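EI: anyone free to look at a 119-residue chain?
SC: sure, send it
EI:
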Amino acid sequence: QVQLVESGGGWVQPGGSLRLSCAASGGFFSFYAMGWYRQAPGKQRELVATMTRGGSTNYADSVQGRFTISRDNAKNTVYLQMNSLKPEDTAVYYCNARRTTLPSTSDYWGQGTQVTVSS
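SC: here you go
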């Protein structure tokens, strides 16, 4: 079972940048598709960005062109580079690891890291 620990959250002014990191342990990192999700107060958790084992990426429309997901399999780490941040990006950001062994899928989550965008 994989364990995930996020870091890199904090406060930033609108237009600023942050880079989130998610360190994985306890599993074969390269076997997992990785993703970032976020949850704002009073809202449901939503997908931000995902990356497959093969490196294909998918982004929410709201972050397309501003956020970039990447992974370093040698370091067992996935990153989320966030540029041109907006107040509406304020949320707790969660790292996700997903392993699909048909017919089942297993999801693992980190504890979350707070991102606050305000002036």
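EI: The chain is about 0% helix and 55% strand.
SC: 👍
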